[in-house]
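ugh ok so i messed up the first submission bc i forgot one of the chains. this is the corrected input, ALL of the components this time, i swear. 641 residues overall. if the numbers dont match what u have on ur side tell me asap before i send this to the collaborators (the ones from the other lab, u know who)
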Amino acid sequence: MKHTFNQEHIIGIFCVALGGLVLFLTRGFPSGQGNVQISGPAFFPNVLSIVLIAVGIVEGLTGSLRDQEGTASIGDIWKGLRKPEFLNILLLAALFLFYIFFVELLGFIITTYIFLFIVMWRLGVPHIKNILYSGIFLVVIVLIFGKLFTVSLPSGILF
Amino acid sequence: MVPWILAMGLGIFVGGIPGLTATMAVALIVPLTFHMQPIAGLAMIIGVSFTSIFAGDIPATFLRVPGTPASGAAILDGYQMTKKGQGSLAVALDLICSAIGGLIGILILILISPALANFALKFTHFEYFWLGVLGLSMSAIISKGSRIKGIIAMIVGVLVSTIGIDITTGYPRFTFHNTELMAGIGFIPVMIGLFGISEVFRSIHLMQEMKTSVLTEEIKVSFKSVAKILNRNKRLILQSSFVGNLIGALPGAGADIAAWVAYGVAKRTSKKPELFGTGCEEGVIAPTSANNAALGGSWIPALVFGIPGDTITAIVLGAMMMYGLRPGPLIFEGERFLVNQIFSVGLVSQVFLLILGYLGIKAYTRIFRFPRNVVLAGILIFSIVGAYAMRNSLFDVGIVLIFGLMGFVMEKVDIPLPPLILGLILGPMIEENLRIGLVKTSGDFMPFLSRPISLSLFIILVVLFAWEPIKKVLSVIFGKKP
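and heres the new structure output, hopefully the right one now
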């Protein structure tokens, strides 16, 4: 049987790495009352990370032992990431970051409008409708959240 | 009567918007009730809690975005039914099961509230620990595909729950001196990200059918077909309502946990467990009956002992004190008439729920008839604003993004999402009770197994996992096919 490096291996490595990281980070945690480790803040995360490492090893071994049919290989995953559609995901993630970092500068109204306009433009909404829908969403949110329920909206320097 | 119905209408509206929870709906209503007679105010509060919990299931079913945390489990089969063109049947079942679950919950409240409350009060740290583990074990049951991947997701969820100030010692864990992380990771932004935003990512990745409506099917459900389904699932409705009510009666365990546990129990007891997660009616009936039944359950400790069963009853208790009422055992003697009125309001609210719920479904489906690309943009911005509104924090918007991407990747590599949420919800309950229990016993684990209720819970846990192998062995012994 031909063995390839597959997604089960990646998941296994991720688990071992995450478990190891948690164990590393909890080294500096204080011990519990009367030096009893079980009551300390590190006890529970440590137990979890040991279990996670064990499960990760099992998952990795499963990837090696299993019939490779139906399991995506690294090559398949890489091919998927290089597809143009993947750019849309990156763009959306970037728009989220734009929103988080700029809303306190540009204000809720401008940032939200820009965010909605770009999202709908990428999703193929015609320009005129896009201008209209972005405005409607904005007004609805301000009215429902801001005015009706007096839920605070992100505020910025401008609006 | 009019404010009561208006409040219930508000519940439909608030519950259906991601980020605006049932707790928030109740909190919004309470200030409006202070000048009213206690029963009028309580009617509004009771009504709004039932309708908002139900309404949370509408976007969960049609868009895979839970309106409230209690709708998380309703996504699993509800959304799959929508994908199969049976979304209207799913919400119709959801509505009727919510009303039946609510009704059963209130009936249990009327009939056995003192006895059940006494039982709930026998739960100490040892029992709560096993209860949490029992809830967590549901993740292995509800997971589709690889059980190991389900366990991985569950452990990651519990690990995420350990971020923030440690409740027992006050020590900041994994916070990296970040003040936002000190408060921990809220499960509402995580849930919005994992289920809602990951679905947006998936749609954007595929870029298919962007100009068609999210909801293409006609919203027409024949009463006969719904009645038939309900008739053949009578036992399941009763079972889920009882499970939901019992979980709701335990202080600290709310409608969200009740829905997940009821889903897990339903799958475990089903003749066709393999259909769960593929859009089966049982997968819709169980969580939706349980989450509304849990509301009745949460009133049991609240009314009988003045202990809140969940966040909603915590607000209710505050409101009752503002009305000059003292929840506790004496309320059944001093305010017997009011208690009876509360029970009546709970029962009648289920009738209003059916009517207003039906109108709510009609209203929301109109919105979901917009082209997919417009609805996706709407989900995005409502998710952002909803996540921000929980704690007025842009950090939570970042959490939505991180878990949205995580959910997208997890689904790509076939790791189930629900166990992560379950781990996040139950993690603090398990850790706190395990550690306090161990401190009490100076590290001795035996009391976790020697008390009657904790031992019973442990046995249930063992049976739950050992049942399948036992069944196989028995079938071999008695010569039947497994």
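quick check: The CA atoms of residues 35 and 59 of chain A lie 35 Å apart. that seems consistent at least. Chain A touches chain B through 65 residues (CB under 8 Å).
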